């Protein structure tokens, strides 16, 4: 019972982050499931089954708050579903001994990407209002879906920063569209895992616990996305992912590092993590007013049928 309550809290926290940042539900949840000894394929399957419900509620909540661009959802979501099914099939046929450290490497890379991107660059907002092309979104969705299924998460860390980096879609609509399109990815990945490992390998009590926490958090996160500083949240979440997966790798058969080496790594990560959060807060405060003005001007230009020419700051 205690484990189910903990999983529900994990689902709640992960969805709060995912719904307000556009990433990290799968990466966060899978990382914690692996930390308690869950089989990699079963962990990813559990998270994706829970995501069917959480992404549905999250998508509806973002739609109600006007955070969704449906053209983007379709252009990236369908290729994402194809990639996710393929990734689930691949992970289902890899041995646990190989899959566990391999997944930790994937999650660690994604964690570093989130951590560095949001700490030092924030949310790019240049060229807001210009259309996103299918030739950009389709390959992005295919790769993101594959990584999401094999890594237990990655749809947001791949899709959200890539679209934000294009500077063509404002942050809240990027996050809302990525969260909504993930519904298709979750369905495809779940079908792939059930076909690959069988439904008997999945603990549906865990799925329900993660789902319950995520469903409670989804509408709150959709509202928070208009108010919470994504830069600060990105630095915080990236640090959690890096710390947890560094621990998994150092204790794996691949490395099996002694205690002294592991603690030294943890100390460096803690210091860098604290410094990144402080830096992100300072940078957010420094550029908050400027960034709000840029977004307001872009929204006004889009409503008026114009395409903004502003070269925006990369800080958020």
Automatic annotation (TrEMBL):
Q: Which domain of life is it from?
A: Bacteria
Question: Where is it mostly found?
Answer: membrane
**Localisation per UniProt entry:** Cell membrane; Membrane
What keywords is this UniProt entry annotated with?
Cell membrane, Membrane, Transmembrane, Transmembrane helix
Membrane topology note:
Multi-pass membrane protein
Residue spans crossing the bilayer: 72-92, 98-120, 181-198, 204-225, 232-251, 263-282
One family name in Pfam for this protein: TauE
Regions annotated as coiled coil: none
The Swiss-Prot or TrEMBL record describes its family as follows:
Belongs to the 4-toluene sulfonate uptake permease (TSUP) (TC 2.A.102) family.
Q: What is this protein called?
A: Probable membrane transporter protein
